[in-house]
Amino acid sequence: MAYLEEQRQLSRSVMQTRLDKGGYAVLASGLTEPIKNQIEALNIPGLTFDQTFVRSYPEASMSAHLTGFVGRDDVGSPLGYFGLEGFYDRELSARARVEKQEKDGLGHPLLSGDWELMPGRPGRSLELYLERGAQFLVEQELKKGLERYGAVSGEVIVMDPSTGGILAMASLPSYDQHKFHLFETTLYKNPSIANTYEPGSTFKVLVAAAALNENAVTESDHCDQCDGPLTIGDYNIKTWDNQYRPGATLEEILVHSDNTGMVWLEQQLGGEKMVEYLRRFGLGSKTGIDLQEEVASPLRSRWGDIDYATSSFGQGIAVTSIQMVRAVSAIANGGTLLEPHVVKNVLGDTPIPLPIKNKGQVITPETAKRITNLMVAAVEKGEAKWAIPKGYRIAGKTGTAQIAVSGHYDAEKTIASFVGFAPAEKPRFVMLVKLREPSSSQWGSETAAPLWFRLATKLLLHYNIAPSN
Predict the structure, then answer these.
(1) What pTM did the predictor assign?
(2) Of residues 77 and 54, more confidently modeled
(3) Is 201 assigned a catalytic role?
């Protein structure tokens, strides 16, 4: 008792009271392995130990938004909340052995009554697509990026376009799962699946892919209304830099991120057809990712000319980060929309592999190649020059979207992003980098894009991907 009193800060009187009740008594709980071994070495007659398991998060806040945490339900039983813990709570939780037997009015078992036994099982484990080294790399670089560019928050998603597997997913600021009760509850949700945003110019590649797939335009066509601002109803649409390029080709429209050119593109395609493709790319509905708390902003039910126009360059339309990554993955893999997944296998007595879920062909493989080449041109010929890894062809697009405040766009507050994949041929990963309200520059080309290329360089080395030339 003296040893327990010292090690567990339990008073001798409390332990004596428990023993005086007779029968089986619990003296202390939550002993660590070293303390248990020291007590066991005392060889006290009648003293036994019961083994229990607790959820531990050895990496503290690493992957917190991805994994979630274990709390308690209304009656005090363990319950998974958010992320994988919430989505797979039934699989991760042990199931107690249950025996059902028919009884009489006095509670005595009826020998001739029905009897049923439901065997218990231990909790299952999850095998993830995510790999610790890549996750650590992504979180470290994102943290540096927030500091370098003075952003309020940031997200990175890395996805395998051939399987839909999530290779890394990080959001900052985060929280410590061991001490979740000390953090604001708003931090519990994973912003990559639970928050929507206006994607800005990253959205242009989806509209361009739709126009190419419908043969509404070709790479040799020239925009006949790119010589100045466009007037649609009561609105004037301008380019981001007030520079205009009469007769611009599709490549020039994407390279220079020309909003007026995108409106021309949408008009060649047709607004209703554009919306049809947005749905085919999975926008307006949940992706089905195996994480708790996913949301989706439905596409508007009524569209006007100005709505079609602004949506063509990613304004006035809401998506989640995971929706954007999934849609661009359909370009990277040859046109197929896949359901994103974090878990590869559910492990137990018999492993349960989770199948790759193909949601249909969005664009043809030929269209996917054509839009990929245009995205490569956007990287190699764009206004800003980045540290592109030597010997690799990278496909991507920047985005800068103003944030709506009280119904009006604030020119000083933006969401800067870059989405792309590498290598451009047989891509190993699709990645989105998103920074909210960077203070060093409002432009995605000067904040999110450099961070994307730093990460891509390290991931190419991490995955041992050889350069193409």
Answers:
(1) 0.85
(2) 77
(3) yes
